[in-house]
Automatic annotation (TrEMBL):
Pfam families in the cross-refs: TPR_10, TPR_12
SMART domains: TPR
Stored InterPro entries: NLR-like, TPR-like_helical_dom_sf, TPR_rpt
Protein name: TPR-like protein
Length: 372
């Protein structure tokens, strides 16, 4: 039973709080992030009032809220919540998950923000501590290693990422042994590994793995779950790399519609889907469509991710390539020069994408000279 307090509000009893937290996690598993967030906020406010901010239950709820904001693409808000969580947990449980989980969460946020060096530092620290205090096969250790592999992917270190995921004693085998090959964590690991294969040119291997992941995701999570949408997205990119453009366009069009509906127009995954759909237009010679798509995604990405974010630079590079194919040499050169310069600062001069951007700039100058 709950009764109004002197101010007219209704504090929740412990059973009601537990029910709220359980319901929030159920909606999270279903991919209904906004509903999960609303329930988590209500539980957190009550836990703060009942137990104080530094109580372990309050800290755990605050962590979950930070992760929910992150997964909805609200990275700045999520970062502030997790920093607050870390500050409150200092001195309470130095070697416990109450600092490891938010530190890993911050690392994942930094990946999305393009702050890859900070991401690597945070997640490496968590990985070492988790191995030491929880053991090398603990699910939270495997999650940290998976996140570290994701950092390596973003840094262009795909072979290192593959080794962490699929090497001897890697995350994928451990996850299969503990949870089975249909568990969401196993499927997520397989999707990341397949992306590593794609980036190294192992296209058929990646396609087969992604088809399996998508089939299982649809079966056990549902077609509209965010993990299923991510699997569709990766498979669409595989079709793109395999030059099966019609299949890629159809798949990525579906992904974009679902991402807008369930994640919002400004979520990083939505912007990435817009970018990749633009690539399908570009590769098929649909240059007017490609130009409009890349202009839109560059504007949105600049506004919400930042002008120097790696995703924004990648989309600007594709816009420059579109202008090259349209014969608009000056527009292409101006954009390409800026992308090369900024990408060296953001990604480092040895990152594979920096070489690709520089090669496009050379190609632009050669084509202009050839047609002059």
């Amino acid at each position: 039973m709950v009764f109004p307090n002197d101010q007219g509000s209704y504090p929740l009893d412990p059973k009601a709080i537990t029910s709220l937290l359980s319901a929030s996690l159920i909606y999270l598993d279903k991919g209904l992030l906004k509903v999960a967030e609303d329930l988590q906020r209500l539980a957190l406010d009550t836990l703060k009032e009942k137990n104080g901010e530094r109580h372990p239950d309050t800290l755990a709820s605050m962590q979950t809220l930070g992760f929910l904001c992150r997964d909805q693409g609200r990275y700045k808000e999520a970062e502030e919540i997790l920093h607050r969580n870390l500050a409150l947990s200092t001195g309470i449980c130095e070697v416990h998950r109450y600092w490891m989980k938010p530190t890993q969460g911050l690392g994942v946020i930094y990946i999305h923000q393009g702050r890859l060096k900070e991401a690597e530092e945070h997640i490496s620290r968590v990985t070492r501590a988790s191995k030491e205090h929880l053991g090398p096969t603990h699910p939270e250790t495997l999650s940290a290693i998976h996140s570290l592999a994701t950092v390596y992917m973003e840094m262009g270190k795909c072979k290192e990422a593959e080794q962490l995921l699929a090497g001897e004693g890697g995350v994928l085998q451990m996850s299969k042994n503990q949870s089975g090959d249909q568990h969401p964590e196993t499927l997520a690991t397989m999707r990341t590994l397949a992306t590593a294969y794609l980036n190294q040119g192992y296209l058929k291997k990646a396609e087969q793995m992604l088809q399996f992941v998508l089939r299982k995701s649809e079966q056990f999570l549902g077609r509209r779950h965010r993990q299923t949408i991510s699997s569709m997205h990766c498979l669409g990119v595989a079709y793109l790399d395999l030059r099966r453009w019609k299949e890629a366009e159809q798949m990525l069009t579906q992904v974009l519609e679902l991402s807008k509906q369930y994640l919002g127009d400004e979520h990083r995954h939505t912007l990435t889907a817009m970018h990749n759909l633009g690539v399908t237009y570009l590769d098929q010679g649909k240059l007017d469509l490609a130009e409009m798509q890349f202009i839109d995604v560059v504007q949105l990405s600049s506004r919400h991710m930042g002008e120097d974010h790696p995703d924004t630079l990648s989309s600007r590079n594709k816009l420059a390539k579109t202008y090259l194919k349209l014969g608009r040499w000056n527009d292409a050169e101006v954009i390409s020069q800026e992308v090369v310069s900024k990408s060296k600062d953001v990604l480092g001069e040895t990152h594979p994408e920096v070489f690709q951007y520089a090669a496009l700039l050379v190609n632009i100058n050669q084509e202009r000279d050839r047609t002059a």
